[in-house]
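ugh finaly. both done.
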Amino acid sequence: MKYAFLLSLTLLLTSCLKDEYQAQILDNDQEIQNYIKSKNLTVQKTTDGMYYQITPSGQTGKAQVGDLIEFYNKLTLLSGSLIDSSFTSKNQPRTLIAGGFSNSIYNLPLSYLNVGEKGIFLLPSNLAYGGNSTDQYPAYSCFRVDVQIVKILTQAQLLERMKSDNNMLDAKTTTSGLIYKKIKENPTGKKLDYGYTGKFNYVGKFGFNYNHYDAATSAVVYNPIFDKGTGLTLSVNSGSFIKGFEEALLLMNEGEKIQIIIPYNLAYGTTGNSTIPGYCPIYFELEVPIP
């Protein structure tokens, strides 16, 4: 009897939650329809509940998984409150690697656009931030996303741009795919090998610029740097670093400085981590000073 009661209670709660979820979806849909009517928009609706209007560019080619997308964006509530916007006037587009930013609100809208196209996308809460809230938007909010894709780069094109941006067009490539160029050599220096300990300096960059806080200047900057350090302790052990970083260290002697571009399969793979998105190649400048 006790277990039958608990089962009945569980089923009742599940049913209530499902009804509440369905009611929220219907409320969101009505809110979006009212907005469409007030703005006199001509839109289409997807099977999952997103409404959209696309202005064709005359170009073809949607982003594929792993491609880098550069785009301008404006994110607002249906009330008009601004949540996020890129700086078109400063030529500072946002970037996203298709399939690499799993929780981005821009994933779905961008998947509908060819390069050069722009669109208006109206998202119900279940396709946005759901029941989450911040000081900018309440739970179960609907959003308007305005986006225009300005450029799409394949992985190969992104690697070539990274080589060009970092003066590495004459770089070498190992059999694994690591791209490297020594900018300071010391042939007689002690070779780095497993078990080596010492100090190193480094700068890490993406293959794209982005807005982020720079502690050194106490300001938001737009550049590709995601990490840097000086005089850090270096211990070279198998598996201590991502594959590409470890391979680069084993190419070095003390007193040398090297530039490397690590393809995503030698970095953080298709899933990434809290800092690096999936499918993201990364650049490092490494220096191992003579003690």
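ok and the 2nd:
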Amino acid sequence: MDGDGRQIVGFKNSQGQEQRFAVEDFGSYAVIVEYLSHEVINVEIPAEINGKPVAEIGEECFFENFWSENDGERHIETVRFPDTLRVIGPSAFVFCKELREVIIPEGVTEIGRCAFQECRSLRRVVIPGTVKAILEGTFAYCHLGRIEEFTIGEGVQVIEATAFTEGGSYDLVLPASATLIPGDGGVDWGAPNLMPSLAEGHALHQMWPHGAPVKERKTGRTGRISSHLFGGDGCEVYELELGGETRLVFLPCDFLDKEVEFVEPYDICRLNWKCEKLSWEEKRNAYAYRRAWEKLFL
């Protein structure tokens, strides 16, 4: 036992390296509350401890791997989860900047808030349908520019606001089972593009239409909204990929642009509380602002 009354246990991984964990006994199952072997960067979490299934990884369990960098130690690169796992606690792997993949086994039902925040080296992520919600901050600030696979299984029911804030620019395929809680949207600033595109009335139809299909009225060229840049008072500036080109457009509530329209039109005002408060005169002024912004900055 350590000074906090936690049991310290050791297990060897498949490479023969000793791994030490601080563990708490919850009667019918065990919880790993802290990882102590920072020098071992390929982690294999045991399925049982003292004959009891390891069902939970505790809050901030691997967080110290960030702070150990100042002592010349390395970040963990891989972690293998046991099939007995049911819960990954809040901020469990926050700042594990060298973690390469997160393959969560079937049976896990809960991933805590900010569990993988700032994990910037991820190449592969698989979330099974047994996980019912992806909560705020779960993959925030990961900046995944080279992600190879990000799979969200059918059965995930909720994607919470800010779950992917500054998560990176890539296409994120959503299961039909998912819905979005009220708020600024499950994909926020710098977040991935939702795929497939979302028609009006879809459960994940959001305030900021990342990935929404658009077309140019004159030429019929098609594209999509690829990024949100900035905005205010319901009037947003977006980056648009259209016919292999990138351009900026302004979105003042009831239309996208005089030259560009949504393939499946919808009223943004129904989704943006700020926008609902704009008068028609304010909307016209918003469009004039967009033209002035183009002349000054493009």
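summary for the 2nd one i guess: Helices lie at 64-67, 273-276, 280-297.
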